[in-house]
Design goal:
Elements (H helix, E strand, L loop, with lengths): L1 E5 L3 H12 L3 E6 L12 H4 L4 E4 L6 H10 L3 E4 L8 H10 L3 E4 L5 H19 L3 E8 L9 H13 L5 E3 L11 E8 L5 E8 L4 E8 L3 H14 L4 E3 L1 H6 L1
Parallel strand pairs: 1-2, 1-3, 3-4, 4-5, 5-11, 6-8, 7-8
Antiparallel strand pairs: 6-9, 9-10
Helix pairs in contact: 1-7, 5-6
Length: 243
């Protein structure tokens, strides 16, 4: 594949490494220096590109995604923090007859972790346990809670009958017993840790996923790029894992 990288931070460099190892060619790299105002999103620059990776930040992800979709390029989005505009993006993907793959986390391990939590939430809910989520990331991360934590919260709410909504900031006083608390900590250079707690009067069960490095995210995103090639529509890790 001929690849364009939109965003060249730590994750972008790791994607470059993994893509090159798998025999793909990085033909275009855009960053804040050569694409500060979107001036490099031209047909000429992207003429020979097969798949684009968007790996910037919540502040710039949406405008980059829309620009790439309008160029009718297949896009794998590694950025989070833009999911509130998902319907707008979906409409543009359909309108421009292209493909977009998005995920809160491209790690295969994390997505299997999601499935474990779905089952666990249902089982612990039936036995009267309480539940909470906590995530820990490096102090440069711009969105809080993480996209992965929000997906965990959604999956728990779908399977934990006593929880009807989630809180992301702990106010003074007692928490509504029907609220799922989602906590966040920012510390140093931690890559990413997500924990789900199930608690009763006699014990606590903790299920945790800890990323050792960004390699799993990068490898997963490259595999998804290979999978999306030639397809049209909106795809997620559910589609990828089921296939």
């Amino acid at each position: 594949m001929n690849i364009a990288l939109v965003g060249y931070g730590k994750l972008g460099r790791e994607i470059e490494k993994k893509a090159t190892e798998r025999g793909h060619k990085i033909c275009l790299i855009l960053n804040s220096k050569n694409n500060a105002k979107g001036e490099s999103f031209t047909k000429e620059n992207f003429e020979k590109i097969d798949v684009c990776f968007e790996a910037t930040s919540p502040k710039t992800a949406l405008q980059n995604i829309l620009a790439l979709v309008k160029l009718q390029k297949s896009v794998v989005v590694a950025s989070t923090g833009w999911f509130g505009e998902l319907e707008t993006v979906k409409n543009e993907v359909v309108k421009n007859k292209t493909a977009l793959f998005y995920a809160s986390n491209f790690s295969v391990g994390v997505n299997l972790f999601f499935k474990v939590i779905e089952t666990a939430a249902k089982l612990f809910s039936e036995k009267g346990f309480d539940c909470a989520v906590h995530e820990l990331h490096h102090n440069k991360k711009m969105d809080s809670p993480s996209g992965t934590a929000l997906v965990l919260a959604e999956k728990i709410l779908q399977n934990f009958h006593s929880k009807t909504h989630f809180l992301t900031n702990l106010n003074k006083g007692e928490i509504d017993k029907n609220a799922l608390y989602v906590g966040s900590t920012r510390l140093g250079s931690v890559i990413g840790t997500h924990s789900v707690f199930f608690d009763s009067e006699v014990d606590t069960v903790e299920i945790t996923h800890t990323a050792r490095n960004r390699e799993g995210f990068a490898q997963g995103s490259v595999l998804c790029a290979e999978w999306i090639l030639g397809k049209k529509g909106i795809f997620t890790m559910e589609d990828f894992l089921e296939s």
